[in-house]
Specification:
The protein is of the alpha+beta class. The radius of gyration is 26 Å and the shape is globular.
């Protein structure tokens, strides 16, 4: 990474190609802040971090304030839309004015569209400003627009969280091409879909879902092994893949999901509408229910990281994962889901889903938006992960780019210089880039097989070489750009044609640790099958916790200003450093001794500033204030001296996440401080790097970790994603001297002019 001069457009060099140092996903206000001065000279790391937090807090306050205002008098459009019942006669549907369609309940909207398809029905016009002007309302575009409205209004106080959602009682309206059978409701999917379709080879022409909540409950209990029987469901919401699995009727010949397909699925639980103390008590209550429903004498391990608490027992007992995030209602939970097909949940009484989840069931496709690849974990909608995209492809759900997005590319091409943000983009021709990626993948696979008569066996990471890291939020992931993603899509397509065998051992998981702005899992890799052993799993957790400090101890005499040689037993002195903690039950893991703790190198005055903010959060929440960030001081050398506000010297600290602060979104101040602490953690994760480059690395980390509620400019971001070049390597290395593959793209094409 090149040391930066005064940065007007900051770049780094990777494989002879310049790349933007700042994430192109960062909003303009953040780019102006981070790209405005030479932080390595004029300001300290502390000043950069502090200004970033203050800027984010101010922006978030304005964002929420704008959306929290409850109009004193609802608009006539809102009043009329909300008063439209779901069961209108055809002549009544025909009389609905066009300007009310955007706000209609989804079941009513589908009845309007179905009526329009009949010879005597009216032809609803496309929502204003979206696509072409012909008179067919596009359901998928309507869903995107409608969800923006749901997101915008969710910050308003009061209201019924069920508004805007659909449930099983709406099935006849929202699945107009479905029929009832003795197995369930069979949904016939469209034979053709517009747009660019990917990963749809396993999509079934029809599926069968449960017809009633009672049949769903029976299936849910069977899939979960009755682990939640007797639970008080108040303030509890289960969402995601396990709910999707229970919604399918596996007895039907039309079913595409069988029990064996769901063996690795967790039960993801969200606790909503409670304060920190009550939510923590609810975690313990859920564990007691779980424990009661296990066989007598069954062992348990409860694992806590910075974002989840997970219950384990013997395989194949279903794992229970509780997401440590404050969410006001089930609607807030569903709006945050990445893939459309996962935006559905169960509250113990009813199955709820967003319109986009219902549409994914109907079509077999998740609709692509830039939130899928840019959304922070704490944004309105979080980004997905490559494992999830391909997992659901194997379950019959592909990815679809809408015509609306494709139609935006020529306009973006015309103004590419204004939107590229330091990148040299490929031509914004989607089909050309897709075929180009298929050619690349085929050549790599030919080289891997090296004239072998056996079918090639490959890992997803065989299409990468470790250099695909970027400044984008997804970092190493193949989802950072369309061309790189299509290389993996091409591999999946080759497997479908019987040309390769994909071994699903590794993905680019380095970007999905607990310090990632995208993920909420932070356990070391383990195999969840009949070979799973709880004692071996605990050993893996211990080794995982020791990995960072063990590297420091064995390779360095000092960290920041701390002399490691002064420690008689460094392993003992670092014993409390734990990125994940565990105990036999929830009570054991929810105590101070099992707080998550991480070593982090910080400027002294920023550590003081962060402590003061976090203490204020605790006091405002009615807790006793305690310091979360303490200087590493096993020899009791430093004491509790006050820190000079101008003292920006780097010291080694232990950052602890106390029990009162385990819940994300309890206070925006805490969330912003934690994101900056994670940025420092990543900046100094490899301390052998040149310390003079720390400001440059921190700038990049901060740009990547912005909790931006929504994508700033959807079509400009989409154009950058489509045109982004995979990092160039002159030769693709794959394990042996005989497997050096010349890049099918010419060097001149991929290097900067």
């Amino acid at each position: 990474m090149a040391k930066m001069a005064r940065p007007t457009t900051m770049n780094y060099t990777a494989n002879r190609a310049l790349r933007p140092l700042l994430s192109t996903a960062a909003p303009e206000r953040v780019r102006q802040l981070l790209d405005s001065v030479d932080w390595s000279k004029d300001y300290s790391l502390s000043a950069l971090a502090r200004k970033t937090i203050e800027s984010h807090l101010e922006a978030h306050k304005a964002y929420v304030a704008e959306r929290s205002v409850q109009a004193s008098v609802p608009s006539l459009v809102d009043l009329a839309s909300n008063m439209v019942p779901s069961s209108l006669r055809s002549e009544q549907l025909a009389s609905i004015p066009e300007h009310l369609w955007e706000g209609l309940p989804y079941p009513v909207l589908r009845r309007v569209v179905k009526l329009a398809a009949t010879p005597e029905g009216p032809a609803p016009k496309r929502p204003r400003g979206q696509g072409a002007s012909h008179n067919i309302l596009d359901i998928d575009e309507w869903i995107l627009t409608n969800e923006k409205k749901l997101v915008y209004t969710k910050h308003r106080p009061g209201g019924d969280w069920r508004n805007g959602l659909v449930n099983l009682s709406d099935a006849e309206a929202i699945f107009p091409d479905s029929v009832l059978t003795h197995h369930g409701r069979v949904i016939t999917r469209p034979s053709t879909m517009s747009g660019h379709l990917m990963l749809g080879a396993l999509r079934h022409p029809n599926i069968c879902i449960q017809t009633s909540i009672s049949s769903f409950k029976t299936r849910f209990e069977r899939l979960t092994g009755g682990l939640l029987n007797g639970l008080d469901w108040t303030n509890v919401f289960v969402a995601g893949g396990i709910v999707l699995g229970a919604l399918h009727a596996p007895e039907s010949p039309a079913s595409l999901v069988k029990d064996e397909d769901l063996q690795s699925s967790d039960v993801d639980i969200y606790i909503y509408g409670l304060d920190s103390k009550a939510a923590t008590a609810k975690v313990k209550e859920i564990f007691r229910t779980y424990r009661k429903n296990l066989p007598r004498g069954a062992p348990t391990v409860v694992v806590r990281n910075s974002k989840t608490i997970t219950f384990y027992s013997k395989y194949p007992t279903r794992r229970i994962q509780i997401v440590l995030r404050f969410l006001k209602t089930p609607k807030h939970v569903l709006l945050n889901f990445d893939l459309d097909i996962c935006a559905l949940g169960y509250d113990g009484t009813e199955v709820w889903m967003l319109p986009r989840a219902a549409r994914a069931l109907e079509t077999g496709y998740n609709v692509f938006t830039m939130s899928l690849v840019q959304g922070h974990y704490l944004s309105e909608r979080r980004a997905t992960q490559e494992e999830r995209v391909f997992k659901y492809a194997y379950r019959g759900y592909g990815i679809r780019i809408l015509p609306l997005y494709i139609a935006s590319l020529p306009t973006s091409q015309d103004k590419v210089d204004a939107i590229k943000r330091g990148e040299r983009l490929l031509p914004l021709d989607l089909e050309y880039l897709a075929n180009r990626s298929r050619t690349w993948t085929k050549r790599v696979i030919v080289a891997i097989s090296y004239h072998s008569e056996e079918m090639p066996r490959v890992n997803p990471t065989d299409l990468e070489n470790g250099d695909q890291i970027s400044s984008e939020p997804l970092q190493y992931s193949c989802l950072t750009g369309f061309s790189l993603f299509m290389r993996h899509v091409a591999l999946w397509e080759m497997e479908r044609r019987g040309e390769v065998i994909i071994e699903h051992k590794t993905w680019a998981v380095a970007s999905y640790g607990e310090d990632s702005p995208l993920a909420y899992d932070d356990t070391p890799y383990y195999t969840w099958d009949e070979h799973f052993d709880l004692n071996e799993f605990k050993k893996s957790l211990d080794n995982f916790n020791n990995s960072l400090t063990t590297g420091w101890i064995h390779t360095h005499e000092e960290v920041a200003d701390f002399d490691l040689l002064s420690l008689e037993d460094p392993h003992y002195d670092f014993k409390d450093v734990k990125r994940v903690t565990y105990a036999k039950d929830a009570d054991g893991v929810l105590v101070e001794v099992n707080d998550v703790s991480m070593p982090v190198i910080l400027p002294a005055n920023f550590a003081e500033y962060a402590n003061e903010l976090l203490e204020a959060v605790m006091i405002d929440a009615g807790m006793d204030a305690q310091r979360s960030i303490t200087r590493f001081d096993p020899n009791d050398e430093f004491g509790d001296d006050e820190v000079d506000e101008n003292d920006a010297r780097l010291h080694l600290y232990i950052w602890r996440i106390p029990l009162g602060l385990i819940w994300q979104e309890m206070d925006r101040r805490k969330d912003e401080v934690y994101e900056v602490l994670y940025a420092f953690y990543r900046t100094h994760a490899r301390i052998e790097r040149d310390p003079d480059e720390a400001p440059t690395r921190l700038v990049s980390q901060l740009s990547r970790r912005v909790i931006d509620p929504e994508v700033e400019d959807e079509f400009a971001a989409f154009a950058r994603w489509i045109g982004r070049r995979p990092i160039f390597t002159g030769y693709f290395y794959n394990g042996g001297d005989e497997n050096l593959v010349a890049n099918p793209e010419t060097e001149e094409e991929d290097l900067w002019d």
